[in-house]
Amino acid sequence: MIMDDTKATVLSILQDLTGEDVSGNMDTNLFDEGILDSMGSVQLLLELQNQLGIEVPVSEFERSEWDTPAKIVAKVQSMQ
Question: In angstroms, rounded to a whole number, what is the distance separating the alpha carbons of residues 11 and 5?
Fold first, then answer.
């Protein structure tokens, strides 16, 4: 199942970048919780591009659309 692979890849990238396993709470606000910052967002976008071929220009990055693991997965899936 492609959706499960995408979700697993996104969670793996987040865990690599942040050292946090966020799979247990897909609605955690990564910015409010201090798990992800602006530098982390850039790294996240680079990893999504490297691993999944998703290109998101930083200029089009709306933090409110990428602030939870669930939103990130949904966003990535919508771009595949």
Answer: 10
User: What's the mean pLDDT in 53-70?
Assistant: 92
Q: Is the pTM of this model over 0.85?
A: yes
- Residue-range domain boundaries for the chain: 37-79
In terms of Cβ atoms closer than 10 Å to its own Cβ (0-12, 13-18, 19+), residue 21 is exposed
Tokens of 48: 């999504």
Q: Residue 34 pLDDT more than 70?
A: yes
CATH number of 37-79: 1.10.1200.10, 1.10.10.10, 3.30.70.890, 3.40.50.2300?
1.10.1200.10
